[in-house]
From TrEMBL:
Record-annotated MARVEL domain positions: 31-163
Gene Ontology CC, one term: membrane
Protein origin, superkingdom: Eukaryota
GO molecular function: structural constituent of myelin sheath
Transmembrane annotation, as ranges: 35-54, 60-85, 97-117, 137-159
Main localization, broad class: membrane
Subcellular location: Membrane
PANTHER family according to UniProt: CKLF-LIKE MARVEL TRANSMEMBRANE DOMAIN-CONTAINING PROTEIN 8, MARVEL-CONTAINING POTENTIAL LIPID RAFT-ASSOCIATED PROTEIN
The protein's name: CKLF8 protein
A biological-process GO annotation: myelination
InterPro entries: MAL (IPR013295), Marvel (IPR008253), MARVEL-CKLF_proteins (IPR050578)
Keywords from the UniProt entry: Membrane, Transmembrane, Transmembrane helix
Its membrane topology: Multi-pass membrane protein
């Protein structure tokens, strides 16, 4: 008996929508020209400086600097992640996520924890503790406060965005 060589294929609407939506990756270069974009890049650059200044020392001998390292690295990674999301306009592809609320929570928590870490960093820097690492720790303390002010600015802009979104 001869076999039939007919093949039937079907396509779901999910697959069609997925391939249509992921075929082109948007890039928003104008985001870097906005104040929140500039603050985010500044947070990344100076946050990297904070944790590299501490990482180059024997910070693991002092728990206070371990906390500063955790906060600096944690928020550095998340800020890079959010920059990628904003630059590629991924937030437009996932409308189920309340991005204004997420941004407000992220920036608000970064501001609070970075402020605590900057205060801990500054209060832990003494020449008596370790003369060899004093300059690195003092510089990291200064830059931690600058990064804190950047997160404060982004928290303000996130709040304005969230507020205008919730009033609509």
């Amino acid at each position: 008996r001869p076999r039939s060589h007919t093949v039937t294929t079907t396509s779901s609407s999910f697959t069609a929508n997925l391939s249509a939506s992921s075929s082109t990756l948007a890039y928003d270069r104008e985001f870097l020209r906005t104040l929140p974009g500039i603050l985010m890049v500044t947070e990344i650059v100076l946050g990297l400086l904070v944790w590299t200044l501490i990482a180059g020392t024997e910070y693991f001998l002092y728990p206070a600097f371990g906390w500063v390292m955790f906060v600096a690295v944690f928020y550095w990674v998340l800020t890079v992640f959010f920059l990628i999301i904003y630059m590629t306009m991924t937030y437009t592809r996932i409308p189920q996520v309340p991005w204004t609320t997420v941004g407000l929570c992220f920036n608000g928590s970064a501001f609070i924890l970075y402020l605590i870490a900057a205060i801990v960093d500054a209060s832990s820097v003494t020449k008596e503790l370790d003369r060899h690492n004093y300059n690195s720790w003092a510089a990291s303390s200064f830059f931690a406060f600058v990064v804190t002010s950047c997160y404060a600015g982004n928290t303000y802009f996130s709040f304005i965005s969230w507020r205008s979104r919730t009033l609509q």
